[in-house]
């Protein structure tokens, strides 16, 4: 069953987030204004090392006031492809330049409220270039063994959607091959 839309109006806008009210009608005939967050797309990189490990960042998130491990990720800039953004973010946040990348998985993590799209890529190598140029992203950058990821998820040491989707798919990919 598909909802019908009759237009929308922006009630807040800035570089990071836009909030719209969308005039919708549900299949049962109920009509109302639905809040929709319009967010820029996100690029994520799962860099797998030669020792069956993955490059991750230990970081604090202000909104939830929590610490957790994450894959390198960031917003896709104007004129940039998702793959270019994923490579740029990995380099800026970790100091490691990912090798050839290929799409791993695409996700829409909260498509009932936002149009945010997550593009997750996989690189099977990386070259260390030096300290991260982005100094505000993480306390630590480490290679985490893939065989520890499941337990870390269970302990809620990995909670971000972009990281979870990428890592769980990566683990499925590894199990198949």
Keywords:
12 strands, elongated, Nucleoside Triphosphate Pyrophosphohydrolase, 177 residues, 43% strand, alpha+beta, 3 helices, four-stranded mixed beta sheet
Structure, described:
The protein has three helices and twelve strands. It has helices at 82-94, 149-154, 161-176, and strands at 4-13, 17-25, 31-39, 42-47, 53-61, 66-70, 73-75, 96-98, 101-107, 118-123, 126-128, 140-145. It has two domains: 4-39, no CATH class; 42-176, Alpha-Beta Complex (Nucleoside Triphosphate Pyrophosphohydrolase), CATH 3.90.79. The longest helix is centred in the last third of the chain and has 16 residues, at 161-176.
Number of domains: 2
What share of the residues does DSSP label as strand, in percent? 35-45%
CATH C-level category of the largest domain: Alpha Beta
Order of helices and strands: EEEEEEEHEEEEEHH
The dominant shape is: elongated
Instruction: Kindly report the CATH topology of the largest domain.
Output: Nucleoside Triphosphate Pyrophosphohydrolase
Q: By helix and strand content, what is the structural category?
A: alpha+beta
Low-pLDDT residue spans: none
CATH superfamily of the largest domain: Nucleoside Triphosphate Pyrophosphohydrolase
The largest pleated sheet is described as: 4 strands, mixed
Order of adjacent strands in the largest pleated sheet: 7-4-10-9
Mean pLDDT: 94
Helix content: 10-25%
């Amino acid at each position: 069953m598909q909802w019908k839309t009759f237009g929308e109006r922006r009630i807040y806008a800035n570089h990071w987030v836009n909030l719209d009210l969308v005039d919708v009608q549900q299949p049962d005939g109920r009509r109302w204004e639905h809040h929709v967050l319009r967010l820029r797309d996100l690029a994520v990189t799962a860099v797998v090392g030669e020792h069956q490990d993955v490059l991750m960042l230990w970081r604090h998130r202000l909104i939830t006031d929590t610490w957790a491990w994450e894959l390198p990720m960031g917003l896709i800039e104007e004129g940039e492809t998702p793959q270019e953004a994923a490579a740029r973010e990995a380099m800026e946040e970790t100091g490691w330049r990912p090798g050839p990348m290929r799409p791993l998985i695409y996700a829409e993590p909260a498509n009932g409220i936002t149009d945010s799209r997550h593009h997750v890529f996989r690189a099977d190598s990386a070259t260390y270039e030096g300290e991260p140029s982005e100094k505000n992203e993480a306390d630590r950058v480490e290679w985490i063994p893939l065989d520890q990821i499941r337990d870390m998820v269970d302990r809620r040491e990995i909670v971000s959607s972009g990281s979870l989707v990428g890592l769980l798919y990566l683990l499925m990919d590894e199990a198949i091959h």
